[in-house]
Amino acid sequence: MDSKKVTYIWEAVVNNIARKVAEEPMEDIPQHVIDEERGDMIRQLRKEQAQMEMYDDPYLNWSGHR
To answer: Do the Cβ atoms of 55 and 48 come closer than 8 Å?
Structure first.
């Protein structure tokens, strides 16, 4: 099977799954799952922000003073 055909089929399957998940009603998801996901997102954003602040700080970024 051609790799382009495999890629096309794989993308179709993934898009179909993504569409089904996106169309699921939100009220079926328990609140603790929503809260946990939001907490994970906040922690990730804080980590990324701290890394960017360190990268932008000339004193903390001693590896090349970019």
So the answer is: no
DSSP symbol at 23: T
Rounded to an integer, what distance in angstroms lies between the CA atom of residue 13 and that of residue 45? Answer: 30
- pTM (whole model) above 0.85: no
CA distances from 8 to 11, 14, 15, 18, 19 (A): 5, 10, 10, 15, 16
Q: How far apart are CA 54 and CA 60, in angstroms?
A: 6
Q: Is the pLDDT of residue 41 over 90?
A: yes
The amino acid occupying position 27 is E
Tens of pLDDT, residue by residue over 3-38, are 666 677 778 888 888 888 888 777 778 888 889 999
